[in-house]
Amino acid sequence: MSKASPTLPLFDMFDYEGEIICGVDEAGRGPLAGPVMAAAVILDPMRPIPGLRDSKKLTEQKRDLLAIEIKQYALAWAVAECSEQEIDELNILHASMLAMRRAVEALKVIPTLALIDGNRCPVMTIRSEAIVQGDDKVAAISAASILAKTARDLALKKLHEIYPQYALDQHKGYPTALHLERLREHGISPIHRKSYAPVRALLES
User: Fold this and answer.
1) 113, 81 Cβ separation under 8 angstroms
2) Taking residues 160-178, what's their average pLDDT?
């Protein structure tokens, strides 16, 4: 069962009406290259982590530091992904939902309720609630946002070592002027999403 949720304060409840709550978020819907990543986090109410918020509002250095704390202090966390091929086969919405489900299913502690950033929920065996802008309202979702973002940035840095001609370490696969220029110069690679318009246009030209 999925439903919309009202605005929540920035805190987490391990036991809310008997629920074990995990926060879930994804990173990488917009880029032209690389996987979409998702994370699920169950925070420990006895070990709060100051400074959690939407990963996009944090510096890279702050995200990296918080990611270390989350992995150290959370009751459980997991990161999962969907590949470029899966994105092209399923579309980015369904691939993002699948990556989030994979992250939840990989948790070592089984949650009973997943709070999902956004307005849609993946199909899962546990109940879920979608919270618009949840990554800046619920600490567990903020933590998931940070883990997903840092994991994806690291993945793109590693892909840069294989495909340095695209400067993936600078734009992380997003459709910046630099990325589009390198695409026109070097053509597409195996990690580019062929269903995305700028990449598809190059394939058809």
Assistant:
1) no
2) 97
The Cα 173–Cα 167 span in angstroms is 8
C-alpha torsion sign, points 175, 178, 181, 186: negative
Say which residues have a Cβ less than 8 Å from residue 82's Cβ, sequence separation at least 6.
35, 36, 90, 95, 96, 98, 99, 102
Structure tokens at 136: 């800046």
Please state, in angstroms and as integers, the Cα–Cα distance from residue 11 to each residue in 21, 107, 118, 140, 145, following that order: 11, 20, 18, 8, 15
Burial 68-89 (b: 16+ CB within 10 A, else e): ebbeeebbbbbbbbbebebbbe
Q: E-strand spans in 43-132?
A: 76-82, 113-117, 127-131
Global pTM value: 0.91
Tokens 């993002």 found at: 96
For 31-64, the pLDDT digits (tens) are 999 999 999 999 998 899 999 988 989 999 999 9
In whole angstroms, give the CA distance from residue 82 to residue 20.
26
Q: Is the pLDDT of residue 146 over 50?
A: yes
DSSP-derived 3-state class of residue 96: helix
The CA-CA-CA angle for residues 7, 13, 18, to 5°, reads: 110
Q: Residues 33, 89: contact at Cβ < 8 Å?
A: no
